[in-house]
Amino acid sequence: MRAARATVATIVVLALAGCYPQSPSGPQLEGVTPAGKPTVLASDLVTPWSLAVLESGSTLISERDSALVKELTADGDVNTVGEIAGVVPGGEGGLLGLAVEENWLYAYFTAADDNRVVRMPLSGEPGGYSLGSPEVILDGMPKAGNHNGGRIHFGPDGLLYVTAGDAGEPDRAQDPTSLGGKILRINPDGSIPADNPFSGSPVYSLGHRNPQGIAWDDDGNLFAAEFGQNTWDEFNAIEAGGNYGWPIVEGKGDNPDYINPLLQWSTDEASPSGLTYIDNTFFLAALRGESVWAIYVRDGEASAQRWFEGDHGRIRDVAPSPDGNLWLLTSNTDGNGDQRDGADQLVEYRVEGFVEG
């Protein structure tokens, strides 16, 4: 393992190499970094896309093109839980994000005419889970060969957040009546929360090109990773009702009508997909950049450290392991990566804490 060049990618918004310099009177910066050697937990996955860790110790993995949900047990066995009906793979579409709440499995997928979210009863025990009939709780997100968004996560408020891409038509991102180019927020049954920023609408924020990874810090603040077009990928602090500028602005635009990203990278350094939060640290999965970026946010400013450049190829998702370590899900079988022995894999790194200041 290595911290590739130990530099910040072309980040221009208050970002410094490594961690923040500390003033004598300033608060301490606490976080974690990856450490040790990687442990391969699962191999020979085919275009895996998302991870959902269960309280039982098992982990569910979606495979984009096969529409299969796989289970990795705590003992290291990989089983097939079931196939999601109605998935129509194509390009970057297919079975994408997974989330679990109580005894329901939620899935975001590309169907014949749109992208949608369904939920299914999840029953059984580790090594023998099964899925019930799917119920559509949100549909109408535009689909295309790319820019499908696809991440779903439950927030600390108990509501489901959904990232939806512009599906190749940038003007959708600024259209409040379109679900494309948005971050959406719904109740677990698909109904609209009464306190959403746009009355009667699932839209939570707008002006996004292809947002994917979402995660919350310890204070309940939402952050998101977003694919840029030709210039800048983004890491954004998400505000309810906020407009992030696409297609008028890509990256930092200093336009008072739109919210600037906290960090931005050139597109060959990132192409961000998954995002997670472990012990005061965000970890961002980079596809084209073949890296993981550790991101530290304090007082509205952010810095980043690059890890694993080229070590595992394309990284699709990241998640905390059940014991708080860092999991990486690779994406070298999706037609864009360098096919490797054992691809694709779920890999674990130990994390170590630090305090500076």
Topology of this protein?
Layout: E1 29-42, E2 48-53, E3 59-63, E4 68-72, E5 78-83, E6 95-101, E7 104-110, E8 115-123, E9 130-131, E10 135-141, E11 152-154, E12 160-164, E13 182-186, E14 203-206, E15 210-216, E16 222-227, E17 232-238, E18 263-266, E19 272-278, E20 281-286, E21 291-298, E22 301-307, E23 315-320, E24 326-330, E25 346-356
Antiparallel strand pairs: 1-25, 2-3, 3-4, 4-5, 6-7, 7-8, 8-9, 8-10, 11-12, 12-13, 13-14, 15-16, 16-17, 17-18, 19-20, 20-21, 21-22, 23-24, 24-25
Notes on the protein architecture:
This protein is mainly beta. It has one domain: Neuraminidase (6 Propeller), CATH 2.120.10.30. Helices cover 0% and strands 45% of the residues. It contains no helices and 25 strands. It has strands at 29-42, 48-53, 59-63, 68-72, 78-83, 95-101, 104-110, 115-123, 130-131, 135-141, 152-154, 160-164, 182-186, 203-206, 210-216, 222-227, 232-238, 263-266, 272-278, 281-286, 291-298, 301-307, 315-320, 326-330, 346-356. Strands 6, 7, 8, 9 and 10 form a 5-stranded antiparallel sheet that branches. A hairpin with a 6-residue loop joins strand 8 and strand 9.
